[in-house]
Amino acid sequence: MNINTLITEFRSKICEKVDIIPEGIDRYLICTPFTFDDGDNLVVVLKQSPKGWIITDEAHTYMHLSYEFDMKDLERGTRQKIISSSLSMYNLEENDGEIFIKVDNNLYGDALFNFIQGLLRITDIKLLSRERVKSTFIEDFKLYLTEKVPSNRRVFEYKGKEYDLEGKYTVDCLINGVKKPLYVFAINNDDKCRDATINCLQFERWGRYFHSMAIFEDQETISRKVLARFSDVCEKQFSSLYLNRDRIEKYIKEYIAA
Predict the structure, then answer these.
(1) Are 11 and 5 in contact (CB under 8 A)?
(2) What interhelical angle do 77-89 and 108-123 show, nearest 10?
(3) 3-class secondary-structure state, position 35
(4) Which residues have CB under 8 Å from 98's CB, separation 6+?
(5) Helices (H), 3-107
(6) Which of 22, 36, 98, 167 has the maximum number of C-beta atoms within 10 A of its C-beta?
(7) Is this structure's pTM higher than 0.70?
(8) Nearest of 58, 40, 39, 61 to residue 49 by alpha carbon
């Protein structure tokens, strides 16, 4: 393999700031100017494998994303769809967290171009629009409770039609089977927090017997005044779904067993 020829091909396909550093037998580090949003460089390695020559990230991309996301959240819902479509679009493969592309017909430049484009698209899950993030959080909330609460003990989007005839006051998830049901609210912004406050107050006026719990996407993003009013009516709060999975699970299990 002629390194100078490879460098010329990579630079013509990608950009002039591509370089190659040999790292042992049949292994080369490809240096590119492409980075994650925090400035860390993408890991790109060209090496010989049982499949032939491949370009791989050696599982670095997933490892980097795991700093911000639980790995389970990358395997389901909206994020999983983005990753799967990216792999398919750029002919990438994934095995146990490693993302790679086989170099076919000595087309090293084309393989590198597809590989980098695919990785950059996958890392875009960190830059989802606000509305996309909102839908992802609600998805994650529902998937989490689906896993942790038996199907006969939960109702999503619960409306008490026997007293709320117009269905205006919704509970994101009702956990039943106990003397007082647990009303669980998924909160990702000020508006949702205000709505949950109003709902809890209305349930109290109707004389409903219930316990309340809130799971936030990120409690620190909620206005202090809005959060203070909500705290007056909500009994239990978890500041983040993603950082409190074990605590939430423990609390729900103890509640269901009571």
Answers:
(1) no
(2) 170
(3) strand
(4) 56, 57, 58, 59
(5) 3-13, 60-66, 77-89
(6) 36
(7) no
(8) 58
